[in-house]
């Protein structure tokens, strides 16, 4: 059993609930993922023996002190709810209610009540428990409004009923209740979004192909004619377009981290689609994220070092260190801050020292060695950068460009279209991560993810073409930043969600929400930036390979 309020959770007995003499408190040994999820289960006070019915069973009698009354009143005012597990089936319910019969804003008119009685309805099939629900009695309450001692008798009832539902199907209830209430409307919204975005993408691709076709015809005609005039457009900068970018070590490290996060996302989707993350498989997602991230660190090391050596970098060891810390560094700093906040609040979201040491050991003996091995493999398999055009010794001067061709306006254009493809689904994801709902429609989420990749690739390629057509050859970093700019829109959506959709309050919930969402959006920036750059590189290679460059 434990207590929770949105993303803030506490141990059940942090509140002064009574403990029967016959109940021995034992904390359940949690797996790594369950601890990361904030689960700290302890044996509950209710004796629910199989097929043993109980009617108004007295749990205990307790006299609440003024301090305990005030503690319960604060919990009721913040809508705290309990979460229990019986035979791995979840049960939850509010611990009390607030009434304001006068319907005024005067705090004196508020009444606070604590529920004293819980009614358990348990369904069984043969010797298996199939379903359990808990109902509180609205008439059996303790008045907590005044600061005075209160005598309370806490009771519970247990009723058993037979059902035909098979044990293998007992989790289907949670899958169905976790879906949006109007699944058809949800599907229609997603399909509508897909059609609009794909039409826009197709329209953009058609225009781009027509423009490119005209460019190829024009350049072919120019080559056959007497070359007594100056070249214009993207062919004019063929000697600069493959000039290596500044800060090549950082660029290679960002590509390595982005490739690793992309690989991680693909593996997590595969596990989700085969049913590993079924409802209330507590901590499975966190365990998968941690283990897969550690195992895919070799992908980051290989990609970063291979690309860094292609860019004629010399200090590949420093590049490897930068790759290992580019994403993990900010994440570790944010975790230290947020874990300290959770410790100060005595919340179960604070990781124990032992769990932190397990993560450190995983990073030391699994992540780091695989990163180094990947780096060594990347260094040994390096090849020279194959550019279709020879790069000139001195870069051409970039002409003065209009304001809308700057980095920030281009980022706004590049991020808006991919965000429009996913914003419908973002609400359900946020409700699952930061609310009390469960997300199980991984098929829809996978479709949206594929759509996000397609749109990000197309919009980045289009903006890269327009940048080159304006004779601006510094496209390497621009394509990466434009590809990852969707993450800025996602973080902006966090502000909208917090102020209009969530009931979060207090420093801990605000810091956890915006802190961890910043890390998630940073990961999206690296991953989508990598997708944008890789798409642009394929496009640029293709168009310059299609013309004769002198």
Automatic annotation (TrEMBL):
GO-annotated biological processes: protein localization to membrane
UniProt keyword list: Endosome, Golgi apparatus, Membrane, Receptor, Signal, Transmembrane, Transmembrane helix
InterPro entries, sorted: EMP70, MFS_trans_sf
Pfam families given in the database record: EMP70
Intracellular or extracellular location(s): Endosome membrane; Golgi apparatus membrane
Predominant cellular place of this UniProt entry's protein: membrane
Spans through the membrane: 185-208, 250-278, 284-308, 320-343, 349-373, 411-430, 442-463, 475-498, 510-533
GO cellular component: endosome membrane; Golgi membrane
Keyword Transmembrane helix: yes
Presence of keyword Transmembrane: yes
Topology with respect to the bilayer: Multi-pass membrane protein
PANTHER family: TRANSMEMBRANE 9 SUPERFAMILY MEMBER, TRANSMEMBRANE 9 SUPERFAMILY PROTEIN
Family: Belongs to the major facilitator superfamily. Phosphate:H(+) symporter (TC 2.A.1.9) family.
Record-given protein name: Transmembrane 9 superfamily member
Organism annotation: Nicotiana sylvestris
Upper classification of the organism: Eukaryota, Viridiplantae, Streptophyta, Embryophyta, Tracheophyta
């Amino acid at each position: 059993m434990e207590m929770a309020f949105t993303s803030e959770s506490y141990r059940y007995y942090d509140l002064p609930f009574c403990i029967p003499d016959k109940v021995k408190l034992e904390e359940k040994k949690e797996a790594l993922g369950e601890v990361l999820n904030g689960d700290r289960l302890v044996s509950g006070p209710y004796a629910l023996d199989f097929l043993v019915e109980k009617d108004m069973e007295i749990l205990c009698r307790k006299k609440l002190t003024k301090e305990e009354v005030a503690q319960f009143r604060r919990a009721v005012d913040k809508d705290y709810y309990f979460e229990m597990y019986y035979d791995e089936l979840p049960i939850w319910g509010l611990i009390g209610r607030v009434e304001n019969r006068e319907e005024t804003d005067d705090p004196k008119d508020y009444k606070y009540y604590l529920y004293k009685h819980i009614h358990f309805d348990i369904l069984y099939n043969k010797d298996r428990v199939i379903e359990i629900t808990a109902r509180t009695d609205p008439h059996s309450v303790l008045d907590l409004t005044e600061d005075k001692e209160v005598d309370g008798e806490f009771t519970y009832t247990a009723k058993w009923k037979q059902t035909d539902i098979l044990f293998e199907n007992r989790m289907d209830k949670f899958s169905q209740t976790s879906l949006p209430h109007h699944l058809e409307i949800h599907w229609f919204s997603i399909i509508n979004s897909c059609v609009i975005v794909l039409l826009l993408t197709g329209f953009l691709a058609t225009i781009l192909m027509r423009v490119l076709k005209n460019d190829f015809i024009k350049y072919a005609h120019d080559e056959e004619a007497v070359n007594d005039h100056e070249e214009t457009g993207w062919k004019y900068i063929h000697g600069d377009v493959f000039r290596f970018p500044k800060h090549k070590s950082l660029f290679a490290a960002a590509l390595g981290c982005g490739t690793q996060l992309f690989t991680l996302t693909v593996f997590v989707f595969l596990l989700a689609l085969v049913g590993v993350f079924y409802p209330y498989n507590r901590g499975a997602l966190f365990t998968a994220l941690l283990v897969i991230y550690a195992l895919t660190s070799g992908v980051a090391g290989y990609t970063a070092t291979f690309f860094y050596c292609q860019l004629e970098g010399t200090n590949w060891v420093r590049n490897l260190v930068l790759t290992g810390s580019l994403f993990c560094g900010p994440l570790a700093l944010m975790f230290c801050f947020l874990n300290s906040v959770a410790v100060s609040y005595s919340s179960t979201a604070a990781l124990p020292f032992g769990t932190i040491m397990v993560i450190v050991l995983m990073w030391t003996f699994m992540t780091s060695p695989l990163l180094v091995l990947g780096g060594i493999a990347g260094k040994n398999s390096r090849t020279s950068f194959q550019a279709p055009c020879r790069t000139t010794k001195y870069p051409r001067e970039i002409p003065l460009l209009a304001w809308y061709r700057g980095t920030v306006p281009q980022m706004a254009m590049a991020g808006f279209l991919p965000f429009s493809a996913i914003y419908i689904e973002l609400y359900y994801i946020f409700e699952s991560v930061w609310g009390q709902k469960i997300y199980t429609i991984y098929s829809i989420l996978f479709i949206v993810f594929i759509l996000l990749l397609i749109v990000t690739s197309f919009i980045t390629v289009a903006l890269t073409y327009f940048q080159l057509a304006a004779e601006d050859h510094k496209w390497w970093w621009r394509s990466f930043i434009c590809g990852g700019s969707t993450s800025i829109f996602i973080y902006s959506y966090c502000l909208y969600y917090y102020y209009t959709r969530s009931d979060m309050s207090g420093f801990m919930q605000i810091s956890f929400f915006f802190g961890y969402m910043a890390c998630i959006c940073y990961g999206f920036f690296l991953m989508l930036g990598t997708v944008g750059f890789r798409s642009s590189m394929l496009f640029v290679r293709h168009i310059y390979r299609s013309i004769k460059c002198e």
